[in-house]
Amino acid sequence: MADGILAGIRVLDLTRMLSGPYCTMMLADHGAEVIKIESAGGDTSRGNGPWREDDPGREWAGYFVSLNRSKRSVVLDLKTEEGKAAFRALAATADVVVENFRPGVMERLGLAYESLAEANPSLVYGAIRGFGDPRGGRSPYAYWPAYDVVAQAMGGLMAITGPDADTPTKVGPGVGDIFSGMMMAFGVMAALRHAEATGQGQFVDLAMYDAILSLCERAVYLHDMTGAVPGPEGNGHPFLAPFGLYPAADGAVALGIVDDAFWVALAGAMERPDLAGDDRFATRSARATNRRELDRLVAEWTATFTKGDLSARLGGLVPFGPMNTIADIAEDPHVAARGMLAQVPHPEGAKPWTVAANPLKFSAAPTPLPATPPRIGEHTATYLAERPTGPRPEADRRSLRDAFGCFATGVTILTTRQEDGTPRGFTANSFTSVSLDPPLLLVCIARSARSAPVFAGAAHFAVNILSQEQKDISGLFASGNTDRFEQGAWRDGEAGMPVLEASLAHFVCAREKTIDAGDHVILLGRVIDHASGPGQPLGYFRGTYFSPDTGQELVDAASRGGQVEIGALIAAEGGLLLCETPGGGLEVPRAPGPVPDIEMLKARFREGGLALDLDFLYAVFRDGATGRHGIFYHGTATGEPPEGYRFHPLDALPLARIRNAAERSMLARYAAEHREGSFGIYQGDEARGTVSRIAARGPSPY
Question: The domain 10-229+341-356 is classified under which CATH number: 3.40.980.10, 3.40.50.10540, 3.40.50.300, 1.20.1070.10?
Answer without folding.
Answer: 3.40.50.10540
